[in-house]
Design a protein that fits this description.
The protein has 595 residues and is mainly α. The protein has helices spanning 2-20, 31-40, 45-54, 59-72, 77-95, 98-108, 113-118, 122-134, 139-150, 167-184, 187-201, 205-218, 225-241, 247-253, 260-272, 277-287, 301-312, 324-336, 370-384, 390-395, 397-404, 407-421, 436-447, 452-464, 472-491, 495-508, 513-525, 552-563, 565-568, 579-590; strands at 338-347, 353-366, 527-534, 540-544. Among the domains are: 1-57, no CATH class; 245-341 and 364-419, no CATH class. The chain contains 30 helices and four strands. It has a two-stranded antiparallel sheet. A hairpin with a 5-residue loop joins strand 1 and strand 2 (353-366). Helix 18 crosses helix 19 (370-384) and helix 24 runs antiparallel to helix 25 (472-491). It is flat. The N and C termini lie far apart (82 Å).
């Protein structure tokens, strides 16, 4: 028995001596536990002093000395600190050993105090994020990510795959991301935040399913439910673009499992990204029956896009004339029919509940606008896909304007216009100052606020096209016509996106100054008539599209353009009695400009 104890003591001594023989071991956090074990088995203090002093290289102290020298040479303390920390980060990334990292918890049995101190600094948190991406199976890093989330920094870890494997952390990150997107409230913020959010959600099938289930529940809320559904659809679109087939999840959350035939038809067409007469015929039969499936099944954005492309452009599936009415009916049904779900409870004579129909089993289906919508789609389909020339289309301009008031038709016309004007030869054949197709864009902008961003995207693409086959002066006139459309878009409320793009063109200095000047001139000279309102002398009320009060964001974005002498110099008078000078004076008087 005594020999066993002596052997064990000898092993502990040998282990401690080996540890103390390592370089700069006196700086290690485990030094105290090592000394305790060594002395408990009869270790000699003189040996400790010898080992620790002989192996002391003072690396940390040397770094501190060098840092002090750098500061004495004129570098700022913060600059020196960043230099040292960045080098240390590089070393850690290069030499990190996940197995050794995991022993930290097994040896100490609790969270090291230095780890809690590290996660209080953003630079070290960023280090942990990078390591977690590279070593997703490291227990120490997984625990650290949870510590970071517990400390309230979950907004930083949206791109960390490790967070997606821990439900508690993922739920916090999901909640924070959704709150950020909802609070921003703007289309620009939505587009800015969605890609990173969608990347996190689509990390794995279980994270995608969990997120979509949560958002499906939230989407039922009247306050913000539609925005949540939009976010859900954007994530579905992102997943599709990355090659993931998530149609079955989307349909299941929309209740498609109760309608297997409709589900099978929709999944078949979406999986192939192509409509076919057989499945369309089955859906048409189902939706013309007395008890049709829910309209939500038809309202999948990618599914609707297939119908719009087929009916309004040549990109989609070519439609057999015998089946055309079925395609039109299904698109019109998806666009115009509304459903109101309600709960039914049946009582007997003793007022005892005898039967309950769950919510969703009973619906009021409103088809009041179905016929008119179908007719509008049919008329415009005949006009845009019938091979009619511009003169024939001009004679039907009234019909087009009337039908464009239907959102689904406006979407289809926008797709058609985009396809037509994207043809490099289109503008070579135009004789009018403003071609018909651009006039149709103006009408879409006037009728549908939700299509403003799509129209602006098309106009930007047109503005940036080279048109190398056209004469230089013709190119400039064409681009001015496109800018006029942007001014009209601005007059209908799409202000900041348009101004932001023009500011971007100005800052890049890759746009002809005369074009920027034309835009500014049109903004200050343009005005709009308020339909239905007249003054005392029965004249239409006309308002300038730009007049005080201005928002701070607008001033900070637009004023640098206006102050540019090369752009607005020719628009100003020497006495300052002009709209441009008035705008500059007003802004400088009422706003503090930060350069």
């Amino acid at each position: 028995m005594d020999s066993n104890i002596e052997d064990e003591a000898a092993l502990i001594k040998s282990s401690c001596i080996t540890e103390m023989s390592s370089k700069d071991y006196i700086m290690e956090p485990s030094i105290f536990s090592c000394l305790k074990r060594y002395f408990q088995v009869g270790g000699m203090p003189e040996k400790v002093v010898e080992l620790l002093s002989e192996n002391y290289s003072a690396v940390a102290q040397t770094i501190n000395l060098l840092a002090e020298w750098l500061i004495m040479c004129g570098l700022a303390p913060t600059e020196v600190q960043d230099l040292v920390e960045d080098h240390l980060k590089d070393l850690l990334l290069k030499h990190f050993d996940p197995k050794k990292a995991d022993t930290i918890f097994t040896d100490e049995g609790e969270t090291p105090s230095w780890l809690e101190s590290m996660i209080a600094h953003q630079k070290w948190r960023q280090l942990f994020y990078k390591l977690a991406e590279e070593y997703p199976d490291c227990l120490m890093l997984n625990f650290t990510i949870k510590l970071i989330s517990d400390a309230g920094y979950q907004a930083e870890i949206t791109n960390v795959s490790t967070a997606c494997t821990q439900l508690e952390v993922f739920s916090r990150v999901l909640r924070t991301c959704l709150a950020t997107i909802l609070e921003s409230g703007t289309e620009e913020a939505l587009k800015r935040n969605i890609p990173e959010f969608a990347k996190m959600v689509c990390h794995a099938e279980h994270t995608y399913l969990y997120t979509q289930v949560v958002m499906a529940i939230l989407a039922q809320n009247k306050n913000g439910g539609t925005v949540i559904r939009r976010i859900s659809q954007e994530i579905e679109k992102y997943a599709k673009q990355k090659g993931h087939d998530v149609t079955h999840i989307t349909l299941a959350l929309d209740g498609a499992t109760s309608h297997p035939r409709a589900q099978q038809c929709i999944m078949s067409m979406l999986s192939k990204s192509q409509l076919n007469p057989g499945d369309v015929t089955i859906l048409h039969k189902l939706y013309t029956s007395d008890d049709p499936p829910p309209v939500n099944l038809l309202r999948l954005p990618l599914f609707l896009e297939l119908f719009v492309d087929s009916l309004f452009t040549s990109k989609g599936t070519k439609i057999n004339p015998d089946h055309k009415h079925k395609y039109i009916f299904l698109l019109a049904y998806a666009a115009s029919v509304t459903e109101q779900r309600y709960r039914v409870e049946v009582y007997n004579k003793e007022t005892t509940l005898t039967h309950h129909y769950p919510q969703g089993d009973r619906r009021n289906i409103n088809c009041d606008e179905l016929q008119q919508t179908s007719q509008a789609i049919d008329k415009v389909h005949h006009l845009v896909c019938g091979g009619k020339g511009q003169l024939e289309l001009m004679s039907e301009i009234g019909t087009l304007y009337h039908c464009i008031r239907y959102p689904v038709v406006a979407t289809g016309v926008l797709k058609w216009v985009e396809q037509i004007v994207s043809d490099s030869t289109y503008f070579e054949k135009q004789m009018d100052h403003t071609p018909l197709h651009l006039l149709l864009l103006d009408e879409i902008v006037s009728c549908h606020v939700l299509l403003h961003q799509e129209v602006l995207k098309l106009l930007i693409n047109l503005f940036e096209l080279a048109f190398s086959d056209l004469d230089t002066l013709v190119q400039l006139e064409l681009k001015k016509t496109v800018l006029d459309r942007m001014v009209h878009l601005m007059s209908r409320g799409c202000v900041m996106p348009v101004i932001s793009y023009i500011r971007e063109c100005t800052d890049k200095e890759d746009t002809d100054v005369s074009l920027i000047r034309h835009f500014v001139t049109e903004v200050f000279d343009c005005n709009i008539s308020i339909v239905g309102l007249t003054s005392v002398d029965h004249q239409p009320i006309v308002l300038d599209i730009i007049c005080p009060p201005y928002t701070s964001d607008f001033v900070h974005m637009f004023l640098p353009i206006i102050e540019n002498e090369s752009i607005t110099g020719s628009l100003r008078n020497e006495d300052g009695n002009d709209a441009v000078s008035d705008f500059i004076v007003h802004c400088k008087t009422n706003f503090i400009m930060v350069t």
